[in-house]
Amino acid sequence: MQIRPILAAMRHHKAGTVLIALQIALTLAIVCNALFIIQQRITRMSRPSGVSESNLFVIRSDWADKSDTQRIDAQMQADLIALRQLGSVQDAASTNSFPLRGTGWDNYIKLQPDQPRMTTDSAIFFSDDHTLATLGTRLIEGRNFTASEVAAQKPRDAMHAAQVIISKDLARRLFPQGSALGKTIYVSMGQAPSTVIGVTDTLQAHMTGSWAGPYAYNAVLIPARLLNDYTYYLVRAKPGQLEAAMRDAPKALFAQSRMRIIDHKDGVMSFAQVRQRAYERDVGMAILMGIISVVLLAITAAGIVGLTSFWVGQRRKQIGVRRALGATRGDILSYFLTENLLIGIGGVLAGAVLAIGINLWMVTQFEMARLSLAYVVAGVAALLVLGQGAVLAPALRASRVSPVEATRSV
Amino acid sequence: MFAYYLQLGLRSLRRNPMLTALMVMAVGFGVAASMITWSVFRAVSGDPIPGKSSQLYTVLVDNRGPQYNDNGEPPEALTYTDATALVAAHKAAHQTLFFNVAPSVLPEGNQSLPFIADGYATNADFFNMFEVPFEYGGAWRAGDDDGRAAVAVISHELNQQLFNGANSVGREITMDRHSYRIVGVTAHWDPKPRFYDLFSHNAFGDPVQLYLPFTRAIDVAMDTSGRNNCGSNTDFGVGREAWLHGECVWVPVWVELPDPAAATGYREFLTHYAAEQQRAGRFHWAPNVRLRGVNDWLDYERVVPPESRISLMVALGFFAICMVNTIGLLLAKFMRRAAEIGVRRALGAPRREIYRQFLIEAAAVGLAGGVLGLLLTALGMFGVGLLFEPEIARLAHLDLSLVATTLLVAIAATVLAAFYPTWRAAQVQPAWQLKSN
Hints:
- The complex is a heterodimer.
- By secondary structure, chain A is of the alpha+beta class.
- Chain A is built from eleven helices and 13 strands.
- Chain A folds into two domains: 4-45 and 281-407, no CATH class; 65-258, no CATH class.
- Chain A is 49% helix and 17% strand.
- In chain A, strands 3, 4, 5, 6, 7, 8, 9 and 10 form an eight-stranded mixed sheet that branches. In chain A, strands 1, 2, 11, 12 and 13 form a five-stranded antiparallel sheet that branches.
- By secondary structure, chain B is of the alpha+beta class.
- Chain B folds into two domains: 2-47 and 305-436, no CATH class; 63-256, no CATH class.
- Helices cover 51% and strands 13% of the residues of chain B.
- Chain B is built from 16 helices and 13 strands.
- In chain B, the strands form two sheets. In chain B, strands 3, 4, 5, 6, 7, 8, 9, 10 and 11 form a nine-stranded mixed sheet that branches. In chain B, strands 2-12-1-13 form a four-stranded antiparallel sheet.
- The longest helix of chain B has 37 residues, at 351-387.
- The radius of gyration of chain B is 31 Å and the shape is elongated.
- At the A-B interface, helix 2 and helix 8 of A face helix 2, strand 5, helix 8 and helix 11 of B.
């Protein structure tokens, strides 16, 4: 293929060449970053929660009379017995929060009582001996709480948990060398140490925001019922009976006492709904970036078709002359394909630089990771293929120009 | 001439429908993407209380010291001790304090079920400081704060729910088993972002339903339903009283200072207050106080979600590409008519007329693109719930100003894009064109 005549011809329509190259460059820059954002969001969404999510649901019960803590305590224990007795329910536990909830109680975790700065931050989950079974989270070391270890905790009193269970990631963060089992940590504002009696497998915290990234898998299970103005009940339905259990459980609670409020909208949520809420921002972002990428590629392809068609129309006579002088259809076809390839290469080179530049800027502005070069390479290949595909139809039309054109006019 | 050129332009749109459709679609998609993301962005980044945002300040006092504070910044709210002391000092024109409450409300009649209503325990100054409009009655008096009165203000929406919208001033409302006399019903009031309650992450929360006196809420031991931040504090003792008078922060305080001189004066007072705490032995560090205005506070708390910023920028980039595309297509469209231009020029049309004709034609393309963009924007408003979480998505809406902006941006951008192609069209040499055909 002769490149020099193509370059010479390009000099005659500089503007069009530059416009196509510019469009390819900008498209590459935006599509690379958009796809990278999609990939990052999907990675976030597909993080494991450490919870066996099917058959699990959550009930929020607010105490309508805000009665004294003793009555709340008695009510919570009665509620749990009622829930566990239901035919469709496998197990149940009360808690203040749970993985993916979005907000909740966080405490600084320290290794020494008088340490000024925290070692790390962790979600606090008030639990009992049924919590791990209800969540479907495995213990990888140590033992579960016993029923007798579970105490009552008033919300404004300092916490004094003698025993705690911590998540695997928190254990690794606190005790990088060796086992956390039997070690003491300081989880509350008090000076009293807590002994780690168990370590769970992966368990996600309630915070899902990107700023909470370093603490996303830190959780401390405290053996206590938190006597707050409201409580959550985690309920595991028997396999296949989730819907029945979600219907039965609030009824059973109201049968226990009517002085409670279970919101009709989100008072009872399956864990699938919890997950959907936690990541709706990410889903939205991924959808938006997806739509923009698809429309952008379509518009760029359409732009190439439009401009190339115009060039073909403009050069019918020249094409006719070339054909009359012996050029084959293949020669004409490959002329336009090569021309587009040359413009495309120019565009993607500029675009790759721009894509990386935009990403570097976003890294400084938002909590974003560095763009992986694989995306740029894939984007370059995709845009070159797109360009060749878009130019094919006008190029084929050009190749069908009859040599007779050369004899018309001029 | 304008009408004639417009007619020509519209006719030319029909001449090569493929090319026209491509251009109109590029302009339409570009402008729609920008407008949808813009409508969300303007809602989350707007001034929630225009006209007064320069006079309202939130007050922050460092009660943790350099060792425990957040990189030198005081915590984002005050302790009960500091909040009540600063409000009692009355050093600003107006001052308010509050915390979030979520009492259970029991409607009248034995058939109804109790429900949770969100509100604030605050003082009388809250209402005039934040310009809360009233439908019936008004705010309680300052005397009710001091008298720890069982009074309440409810929102228009809660009034609808409880009293079917009737004037309920003077009637009773039961919250957490205690009875309160209603003194006012607000009109619909929901500034976004809710600048005054960023501490509890309520920038885009559901509208407030009720208000009751801070002093009364403390008396009945109503607990905060918002954030409570104890930082890295050591043991604060046992029970509510110890917590109340401890060093956990949970009470935002706002002051109204009409001019910069008043702000300077108040800053001095604050420094003085902190110095006094230091002398008294409560703080072991030099005064570290902040007075942050509304916009400063919105920035500091990073209220605009990064998603909204990123999507606006991506949409603008997308629009830019659409415009580059339009330049190319307009160039093709105009140059295809070189012969026609040659004839016009040969017949005596000056370059100015060529400019006029083609720019008007471009404006016609822009108008068509704008109309398509408007349709797509309206469609996008339904889909915006898919892209942003409900609290944010509900802020986006299509109003007259957005309609006007959409059309204007579409036309202006297309005309701008047409400058280069038009210049090229005006450069056409009449002689050459006439010769070659």
